[in-house]
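SAMPLE LOG
Freezer: B-3
Tube label: C17
Construct: single chain, 314 aa
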Amino acid sequence: MQSSADSFWAACGGCGVTSKRLSIHKTAAAASPIGLVTGEAVKNGSLLISVPYNSVFNGQTLRGDVLPRALPPLRKMILFLTRRGRMGAITAHSLWLACFVACYRQQCAVSNVAERWLLQQLLSDTVYPLLPNLFSERNKFTCPSLRGSSAAELQVMEMRVLDELDLTYSMLCHYMKRRGVSSKLCPSRDMLLQAHRTVMQRALLLPCNGVPSAPAELSELIETSPDLALFPSLVPAIDLIRAAPLNSRTEAEEGRAAESSGNCAIFTCVQSDFVSPSSRRRLIVETAPLATRRVVICATKSLKEGAELLMEFE
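STRUCTURE (predicted):
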């Protein structure tokens, strides 16, 4: 695992990700098998991870040569999936993102091993290991959006998601057949299912164009901007941070407020340069707006070396 982790961090550096000393560690939870721990002591308020918005994986940033041949165009898939009110736009974007992950992995698997794929290390099994069914009473606590659901609600949601996956997979196969794409590049339905579980558990909702939330947290921007367009996004390094566990599962199940053990928070911001150390005046360069946008994680508590990063997503 160490060599794969080293390759992952090298790939992160190659796409502009910067961070404190962090490492990937295995957890005891099968439904949430990896997380991030600090390699040094961190002060409250310190910047932990900074990711360029253009290095995020979502429907706005993924384009050009990084798109696998088997993947249908975003616009066509969204129009198809949302037709006649089948599902909302965010759900459709999540399914397209799952298709991207599955198709990219399949393309890497069948291609010449000597051929280098730009995002291969960022989408490896080390980073996105196989996950069990998240729609179970045992596993629902690893997925923030499912924590408050009853067993009956989980069953209904699981059936709906499986129907949506069947619809997505049929569209994927139809697109490949129409375009004459080799069947070798088509991921299996199980690969799509696994990719969707990854997106369900790990994707973050980011505003279109990386609209800055700072100095407020991203959650505040989303809460106060109901018309803000959002993209489900996989964010290198940041999406390895696990959801903070609730201190009381009983409280969560009964819908009561429960304390969380989160120790970091997510922001979107604009990269800034100081004109001079004495004036501390900031010059914000936005000649290419998306190039200056960042997704960052800051510590909300002082952390000791070896502490796991945990974030509140509710």
